[in-house]
Amino acid sequence: MPEKFDAIVVGAGVAGLAAAYKMSQAGLSVVVIERGDYPGAKNVMGGVLYRSMMEDLIPEFWKEAPLQRPVVEQRFWFMDIDSVVTTGYKSQDWAREPYNCFTVFRGQFDQWFARKCTEAGVVIVNETLVEECLVENDKVVGVRTNRPEGDIYANVVVLADGVNSLLAKQLGFHQEWQPQQVALAVMEELKLPSEVIEERFNLEPGMGTTIEIFGGGTLGLVGTAFIYTNKEHLSLGVGALLSQLRQAKIKPYDLLENLKKHPAVRPLIRNAEPVEYYAHLIPEGGYKAVPQLVGNGVVVVGDAAQLVNGIHREGSNLAMTSGRLAAEAIIRAHQMGEFDRRALSHYEETLRNSYVMADLKKYKDSSHLFEKNPKYFNEYLPAANMALHEMLTVDGTSKKDKQKRIMQRILGGNSLYSVGKDLYQAWKAMR
Amino acid sequence: MKENFTTKIRELKTEINIDDKLYLNRWKPDHQSHLEIIDPKVCEAKCSGKDCTIFCPARVYEWRDGRIAVGYEGCLECGACRIGCPHQNIRWRYPRGGYGVQFRLA
């Protein structure tokens, strides 16, 4: 190993690997430091990986990467205690090249991606924890690992150390996250034969579907639940803002078990065997929580920079794009031979001009609004269930009377004005 | 009254043994803890909710004999306790390189 690299990447997730791959392709010497036994050993994701941003790095990667299923259908469930309003979209377009997105196991995908990096010349060091950044004269010059004589030096350090992002915090790029800036999600992999999955989810062989569940999955807390189809597993998970879980005094795995018993979920997972259990934080702070992204000799990418679009459950794509854009800025800095904040600020500029920051900006108020006003998840979603229940249950009551009942339920103790205001604010936060 | 989210939350009871879930995973336990209660007196005197014993998804924290017991071996390394402790009383680090939970799928 050379004493000094052009770049050190902390964390072998998709953000870090994207940065490493891109830099190595441009001829820079790069080392990736990963604390797990192998890349992916610590990486937890609901499971949807987007094709377009991965293809920016490796064209037609789907021909060789270990993927689970191309997603051909996205369903949305608005759930009450024992009912659900469903909608969704299915497209044959998503069932063929170049595809839209895939379910993946990060334990497998990240190892493959890391192998591609190694082939491109990246050095990957596993089982090694970066304890701190080495700072000299207000400039990050390397990292200290937990190995003996484990100091490694580089012109630039890429912090891709995930949502907990202790290193960026240490540098003073952000304060500790607040409980309302992160969602705590728990998830299980449930094993089922692939034909059973395809039958239950109405899928052609090899194709996949995702279900996002609002309302009942989190029992009204701000969050979502989800079911994703893998080849021979279902990913079933539920996550809510940590602040809300804490306040409601709910054990996250109780939400998971409760979800499994829901009449809309139970038949989908019957006889499925749990094989792995996860917990993970999801950055939900959005645009306003994005920390300082660039410093002297250092950049922050992916979850560590809070780059997650919670409304659209996008994260891996923002991570890969930020990693790629950071790499491009570092390559440029390398050509100039300057690595201070100004030289690296090209990363921040391109990120701000990309869909990443545009999307975060678009939804900058949404998570806060839903947290501040519990009625969206707690009242309006159940009211939608009630409305359909009334209109579709034939019992001799006139439709006009049913409509009255529905309006009473939607209004509850609220005035028409306040409901209108809630709807307007939701529209404003999402538009 | 018909069941709603609020009544359901009140009714939620843990029938599951969290160890059954944790046994599914592959672990490389370290002999030293990466989680540390900074001042046990704060848990006892200032923290009425003992929130960490509830929201921790691996039930690492348990209130036993007047103090918080930390079962770090089953930690899923999510970081929720560090952020969620109402008194910022948990010193949270990653386990040393190569130790802790090692996921195969996800």
TrEMBL record, chain A:
Q: Where is the FixC-like C-terminal domain?
A: 367-431
Q: Which UniProt keywords apply?
A: FAD, Flavoprotein, Oxidoreductase
One GO molecular function term of this record is: oxidoreductase activity
Q: Which SUPFAM superfamilies match?
A: FAD-linked reductases, C-terminal domain (SSF54373), FAD/NAD(P)-binding domain (SSF51905)
Its needed co-factors are: FAD
Which residues belong to any copy of the FAD dependent oxidoreductase domain?
Answer: 6-56, 108-328
What the entry lists under InterPro entries is as follows: FAD-dep_OxRdtase (IPR006076), FAD/NAD-bd_sf (IPR036188), FixC-like (IPR039651), FixC-like_C (IPR059103)
Instruction: State the similarity comment.
Output: Belongs to the ETF-QO/FixC family.
Report what the protein is called: Nitrogen fixation protein FixC
- High-level lineage: Bacteria, Bacillati, Bacillota, Clostridia, Eubacteriales
